[in-house]
Amino acid sequence: MKTLNEHIKNHTFQNVYLIYGPEDYLRRQYRDKLKAAVLDGEDTMNYNYFEGKGIDVNEIIGLAETLPFFAEYRLIILENTGFFSSANDTLAEYVKHVPKTTILVFVEAGPDKRNKLYKAVNAAGYAAQMTSPDQETLVRWVAGILQKDHRRITKNDCLLFLSLVDPDMENIRQELEKLICYTMGRDVVTAADIHAVCSVHTENKIFDMINAVAGKDKRQAMALYNDLLTLKEPPLRTLYLIARQFNVLLQICELAGQGFPANTIAERTGMKPFVVRKNMGLARRFTVRELAGAVAFCTQMEEDVKSGKLADQIAVELVIYKYAS
Q1: pLDDT tens digits, residue range 164-173?
Q2: Three-state secondary structure along the chain?
Q3: pTM over 0.70
């Protein structure tokens, strides 16, 4: 992203770009930044946008070969085309010879890096990966959005907010808009505000469920599971998330048992530091052996569901009853 920012700032453009990665918010943001930098104001004569599959490659090449009209560049943006997951030798060869007056921008969520087109774009232009920001960057981003609407938040409350909501940046932005509306007339966003209006991510309900299981509170664990069923969460996905939560706790339990602090555990596992800190207390309520057994049992339940031996809803209930007993 740093290189792309420099291209935008200095107007030193490549003739072909690929903007990709899991963060939809960042992909759109950099797509629009690049568009604004390349085009002079609302220049529609030298701009073409295509989205989705089934795009005619020959039409794209024809447009790319057309000289811009009273402008330095012609900009063509192609989004979610599927070109990077299937063979497209014609386009892969063409990106090596894009005219200096044309800028091609591909925007994709998850390109196959073994694909010929990906390799050609990476060699002839620039492939910019939109990675999820680290914890400190997210905290500053959240604080910046709130500050624009004259709101403040403590770092601890910001970390609470980030631990509860879906980590997708677009979802975070939407949840912040809810908080800004809810706190109209006040300048501080509190933990109570966060609990009052923010939509709790499914994985946090799973965390609470495992917490209830660890406390042998079968009734609470089942109540949380019924909440997920009410929200139309598929039982098989719930089972997968329970298994993943047990696996997160297993990794933390093993590394913490070796004396590693939270930051080191985060580095070794790839988890966010606030996620590790949130889970460390819960991990201490289990032994490594118990967690390894829970992961194995969940895996077996998933296999039984997929092979038709067991109903998905019953499989989740068996996990809860087994470990809350």
Answers
A1: 888 788 889 9
A2: CHHHHHHHHHCCCCCEEEEECCCHHHHHHHHHHHHHHHCCCCCCCCEEEEECCCCCHHHHHHHHCCCCCCCCCEEEEEECCCCCCCCCHHHHHHHHHCCCCEEEEEEECCCCCCCHHHHHHHHHCEEEECCCCCHHHHHHHHHHHHHHCCCECCHHHHHHHHHHCCCCHHHHHHHHHHHHHHCCCCCECCHHHHHHHCCCCHHHHHHHHHHHHHCCCHHHHHHHHHHHHHCCCCHHHHHHHHHHHHHHHHHHHHHHHCCCCHHHHHHHHCCCHHHHHHHHHHHCCCCHHHHHHHHHHHHHHHHHHHCCCCCHHHHHHHHHHHHHC
A3: no
